[in-house]
Amino acid sequence: MKKKQSNSQLVKEMFCDRCGKKIHVKDGIVMEGVFSFEYEWGFFSNKDGEIHSADLCEKCYDEVVSLCNIKVIKKEKTEII
Ligand SMILES: [Zn+2]
Fold this sequence. Notes:
The protein is 11% helix and 31% strand. The chain has 81 residues and is mainly beta.
């Protein structure tokens, strides 16, 4: 869960939505690995029209992904800006 400053898009505070850990944020910049997602459920789901979003710390991401029977597809980024 992100709490943004009222007059900008800068992140003020951030917490892992699974374990509640406070994510390190400095000057509006997230200073550690966080898996953030936002997904709009579609017509063929039971959540049509709902948009779900969450933030997971890196430890919780690793634990959630480890529950998958099929491993997450990983790609190396070839160009880092
Ligand atoms: Zn966590």
